[in-house]
Amino acid sequence: MIEMQDVWKQYPNGTMALSGITINIKKGEFVYVVGPSGAGKSTFIKLMYREERPTKGQIFVNGFNIERLRHRKIPLLRRHIGVVFQDFKLLPKLTAYENVAFALEVIGAPQRHIRRRVPEALAWVGLEDKADVLPTQLSGGEQQRVAVARALVNNPSVIIADEPTGNLDPDTSWGIMKLFQRINDRGTTVVMATHNRDIVNTMRKRVIAIEEGRIARDEQKGLYEYED
Amino acid sequence: MRISSIGRHLREGSKSLIRNGWMSFASISAVAVTLLILGSTLVLAMNAQQMSNYVSGQLEISVFLKPQVSDSEGAQTAAAVKQIHGVESVQLVTHEEGFKQLQDSLGSQYKNVLDGLPKNQTIPVKLVVKAQDPRQTVAISNKIQGMRNVDTVLDGKSYVDKFYRFMDTVRNIGLVFVVALILMAMFLISNTIKIAIFNRRREIEIMKLVGATNWFIRWPFLVEGMLIGAIGAVVPFAAIWVVYRQIFSHLNGSFIALTFPLLQPGALLGKLAVIMFGIGLLIGLWGGIMSIRKFLRV
Questions:
Q1: What residue spans of A51-127 are helical by DSSP H?
Q2: At A46, which helix (H) or strand (E)?
Q3: Can you give the residue range of the structural domain that contains B140?
Q4: Same domain, yes or no: B94 and B235
Q5: Strand A56-61 and strand A2-10: pairing?
Q6: What is the mean predicted confidence (pLDDT) over A147-152?
Q7: Which chain A residues are Cβ-neighbours of B209 within 8 angstroms?
Q8: B8 and A83 in contact by Cβ < 8 A?
């Protein structure tokens, strides 16, 4: 599903973010990516959806060779990947429904498909009755649910989440985590960068720890093991 | 691009145009001023072309033979002139005919002035030569100049040349203005679209993330540029349309129109519409492309 072989990433300003990462994530896995701030977690995540390119090494995602991927083909890769962020990235002037529909509209999906899929996705995250509400009228957890619905609406085979609970209180965070568990239960691969010790140590999954640009640990049902 | 997306691009482009308010207004005005000058220059130039064709078509070469040359000798010269390549017709004006023409042109009041002068010697024999092609006038008149018995050759060349030179100057000045203004208009449009791109950076970010193609992201901005260009063409075209029709209907049938016939408004304005809207769209499109290339490296 996701494969990296000796991946290096140096930013133009000279910062070496990743130094020789080799990893294999299989279809249907649920993986936490942990590690201190600035250790390379974000870069690791961004390489997967081709937001950044590796300086060296090979990456395969869902059958795409990221390194060889033509610029024009990037959109095709991203249609197989759903991305969720700490800050939700919703469009403030669009309702919950419109925010989810936006993801389908801009890839040229037919209207009848949109009208069927968007309510399904909203129902799936439990927001069917908030379809016409603007993000500013929603709580943080609800906003993140809209973002998850948007990531899911296109039926991706991988969901990549960068600190999805970073802005949420513990109770709300658990609600969102249950959502990710359900996504994973459907057979969708989940890769989640997180700082949330409670979650990692309670909902035990494979843990990949990145420190100073290298894989420090890679354990099934691992623990968080950091102080922050 | 999918057909179903065209509607969306048009909608998004117009939304952005309205959202940009004053910047859009400034860009549209710049295009309008540019096209007003371009259009007026074109109307002038096309009419000047028409006039000069018309004037040249009426140009005759007047060949005055030496005073002592008789009518029959004149006829021989006329025959010789007729042989010159490119000559369409030669008309012989004898001593007597010339005298009569002069008399007629003086009018009844001064008719008597010429009384008592010998009809066969006062006015030299004249040949009126017409060229097949007005542009050959000069070459023909040069040849005639060298012939025996020929005294003075008058062709309208110097007048036509002056006219042409004047029109060239008008056209060149117009062209310089138009080029400068086109550059300014494109600069303004590309700035407007730059702001539009900035305003929509969040949307663009999400579009990229969920896998919208590059052209899907770009089209609305190109549409916005082309809308600015097209709207900018409407106002000056309408202005020229109204003014030209007014001028035409005022002048038509008057003395000036006989000397300098204006082009029919229908055909002229049709051509002008194509040119002005075409250039407006191109300016807008190019302004959009400049911005997209710089600020939308998707």
A1: 74-78, 96-105, 111-124
A2: helix A41-48
A3: 60-155
A4: no
A5: antiparallel
A6: 96
A7: 49, 78, 83, 89
A8: no
